[in-house]
Specification:
Elements (H helix, E strand, L loop, with lengths): L2 E4 L4 H12 L5 E5 L11 E5 L5 H8 L5 E4 L5 H6 L1 H22 L3 E8 L22 H18 L3 E8 L1 E3 L12 H10 L4 E3 L6 E6 H13 L10 E3 L3 E4 H12 L3 H4 E3 L3 H7 L8 H5 L8 H13 L1
Length: 311
């Protein structure tokens, strides 16, 4: 299967490339501004540059592809701060890429990394497949616009799309990511190092979370699943675990041998908490029917996330 991956140099992209190569998939065509740390080997074509560059997209699509995994994005906080950048990459370049791939290979499988940001905030007391979509930020709005476009293009048989709404992914690298949800991963870094951590949300605050390894496995699954199992809109919310920040901190502490009570304090950012730590119980029957899976339990999620930090 000839696969194009955008955002291949990013946190999720690198893990996805590793998983695809390990499973014998390819050839792969990779796009990102930088592809540092991504293997250069036979069957892997690297294309460094801006996704909005039509010539770059043409080179990456040359010869056609069987599938596109579209991960490239201007993340939430950065998209909100710079509408033009979000419009250029998250919407315009995304739609251009999808239509160009469809022109070369009608019916091409598109796996689109959408986001739970399409739900907006505040969330209702329970979220399921029937929950209305009402994004509260530019990032979520542009993700939803792309979901709608993919559903329409699938109806027209131009593409065969799967949009997967990603939850919080654990644990991301340390440093500035442009994501307002970075505190979830920063908790791992601090406790693993035995350092104090000031949590910006209440420890009772709840999140939807999935390990990097499970995200990659779900994306690989999306490449070959039977799309007739999907709802008409071609979009599913991944079946993430619903956990509190306090339980997450205690499990990390248990597995790293530190005292969460001594290291974790709280200084609440009420706006951040409202947007990212009031996530209610989640039901995802459509995703589960299509074969997507969560990490199993909190202990397994934390083990997987900690192994990502080791890697």
């Amino acid at each position: 299967m000839r696969i194009l991956i955008t955002g291949a140099g990013g946190f999720v992209g690198r893990r996805l490339v590793e998983g695809l190569l390990a499973a014998g998939h390819g050839p792969l065509s990779l796009i990102d501004v930088r592809l540092t740390g991504v293997p250069g080997q036979a069957g892997v074509a690297r294309h460094e540059g801006d996704l909005a560059d039509a010539a770059l997209r043409a080179r990456a699509l040359a010869g056609g592809v069987d599938a596109v995994v579209h991960l490239a994005t201007v993340p939430g906080g950065a998209a909100e701060a710079d509408y033009d950048a979000s419009r250029r990459i998250n919407l315009d370049a995304s739609l251009n890429l999808i239509e160009e791939a469809a022109h070369l290979e009608p019916g091409v499988r598109i796996v689109f990394a959408s986001s739970i940001a399409v739900f907006g905030d505040p969330l209702p007391s329970h979220v399921d497949d029937a929950t209305p979509l009402a994004p509260a930020m530019t990032y979520g709005a542009h993700k939803l616009m792309t979901e709608i476009a993919l559903a329409d293009l699938s109806r027209r048989k131009m593409v065969d799309a799967v949009s997967v709404r990603l939850p919080g992914i654990l644990a991301r690298p340390k440093g500035r990511s442009g994501m307002k949800s970075a505190f979830m991963s920063n908790l791992f870094h601090a406790l693993k190092a035995g350092e104090a951590f000031t949590c910006p949300v209440a420890l009772e605050g709840t999140i939807w979370a999935m390990s990097l390894a499970r995200i990659a496995e779900n994306l690989i699954h999306a490449l070959t699943l039977d799309s007739t199992l999907l709802p008409a809109g071609r979009a599913v919310t991944l079946p993430a675990l619903h956990v509190s920040m306090g339980d997450l901190a205690r499990e990390i502490a248990s597995q790293t041998g530190v005292d969460a009570g001594a290291l974790v304090s709280v200084d609440r950012d009420t706006a951040l908490e409202a947007a990212f730590a009031h996530q209610p119980p989640l039901a995802t029957p459509a995703a589960e029917r299509a074969g997507f899976r969560h990490d199993g339990d909190l202990a397994a999620l934390v083990r997987s996330a900690l192994s990502t930090l080791e890697g």
